Amino acid sequence: MRTEGLYLAGIGSIVPERVSTDHAVAQGWYEEATRRRSGIVSVAVGGSVPAPDMAVAAARTAVRRSGLDEDDFGILLHSYTHHQGPEGWSPSHYILRKTLDRPVPAVEIRQACLGMLAAIEAGANRLVANSSHPAALVTAADNFSTPLVDRWRSSSAFVLADSASSVVLSRIDGFARLLAIRSMSESRMEALDRGDEPLFPPGITTGRPLDFESRRDFMRQQWAQGIAPPIGHFGDAVAAVTELTLKEAGLTLDEITRVAHPGFNRDGLETLFLEPLGVDLDRGVWEYIRQVGHASVTEVLLGLEHLWTTGQVVPGDRVLLVSAGAGACAGCAVVEILTPCEPIVEG
């Protein structure tokens, strides 16, 4: 979708204290060979801080940076992948109460790790279709520090990281212009994240740990027995959605200054994202994101904020945000930086 007159007016994030992968190896949490291959040097670990509270803190920064009033907002959209609190409870309304505190819709967007971009796309559509308010608040947060998650071993492709991020979408003005945003699905690949686990009762209700690796092992065993799963190369989907989004933005990849991408281990990052796009590590955010880990729904916004606040992108630069999630789904957005970052005045 090509977007006209839509802006990112404010951005904020929370990245908890980071635990080095060297320390994780010394503690027996992580294998040394895996650490060397991954390229990940540290991982953000949130401890006992609830994910919705991290989202609240990130949202307050984004709203403050936007310069907008709470009455300007017509909707809040919250995304996450891991459990946020009590079963049957609404984290989005908790975040709404502690931020905008207005009687506007508070909506959950569940699109796995693509959730933040999916929420931005939904917020953009809302602002185009509904002129009652000029702004939307988008939040995302996860904390995997729970008993049924082993962040270090749940997958060989990444180490799960905790964080929160938020962005304000506006029809008024902002530090960046949203040029285009799009997502797509390759539903044949949903089995990769299902494996042989039953659909009912859900594993979380029976005490089954989160284990992506055992699901992939099942698919590999099936393949070895001659049962080929109906999947293709996911990098093709990443390349396809990027090509379409750039076309809608009226740009080529050569006109993109930097790319904000997931915090996968280096080999998976290159195979699934960078090589299909023809982008090298230096053009991405590898040196930053390898210090955070795979921050699920938040990581492309973490990358964008890092580039902007450190002055690595300046007015006129275009940034590609690209991500993916279980399902399988892929998406990207193109933004153009309009103003340099200024220090936040606390108070």
In brief:
With 347 residues, the chain is α/β, with parallel strands linked by helices. 31% of the residues lie in helices and 20% in strands.
CATH superfamily of the largest domain: Thiolase/Chalcone synthase
Give the strand order of the largest sheet, numbering strands 1, 2, ... along the chain.
5-4-6-7-1-8-11-10-9
Count the beta strands.
11
Could you say what the CATH topology of the largest domain is called? Peroxisomal Thiolase, Chain A, domain 1
Q: In percent, how helical is the residue content?
A: 25-40%
Largest sheet: 9 strands, mixed
Classify the oligomer: single chain
**Structural class by secondary-structure content:** alpha/beta
CATH class value of the largest domain: Alpha Beta
Keywords: Acyltransferase, Transferase
GO molecular function, one term: 3-oxoacyl-[acyl-carrier-protein] synthase activity
Protein name: 3-oxoacyl-[acyl-carrier-protein] synthase
Domain Beta-ketoacyl-[acyl-carrier-protein] synthase III N-terminal: 108-180
Account of the protein in words:
Residues 246-337 form the Beta-ketoacyl-[acyl-carrier-protein] synthase III C-terminal domain. One of its GO terms (molecular function) is 3-oxoacyl-[acyl-carrier-protein] synthase activity. Keywords: Acyltransferase, Transferase. α7 (234-249) crosses α8 (266-277). The radius of gyration is 19 Å and the shape is globular. The chain is built from ten helices and eleven strands. The chain starts with 6 loop residues before the first strand and ends in a 10-residue tail after the last strand. The protein folds into three domains: 7-174, Thiolase/Chalcone synthase (Peroxisomal Thiolase, Chain A, domain 1), CATH 3.40.47; 179-187 and 231-337, Peroxisomal Thiolase, Chain A, domain 1, CATH 3.40.47.10; 188-224, no CATH class. A hairpin with a 3-residue loop joins β10 and β11. The strands form two sheets. The chain has a nine-stranded mixed β-sheet, with helices on both faces. It has a two-stranded antiparallel ribbon with strand order 2-3. With 347 residues, the chain is an alpha/beta fold.
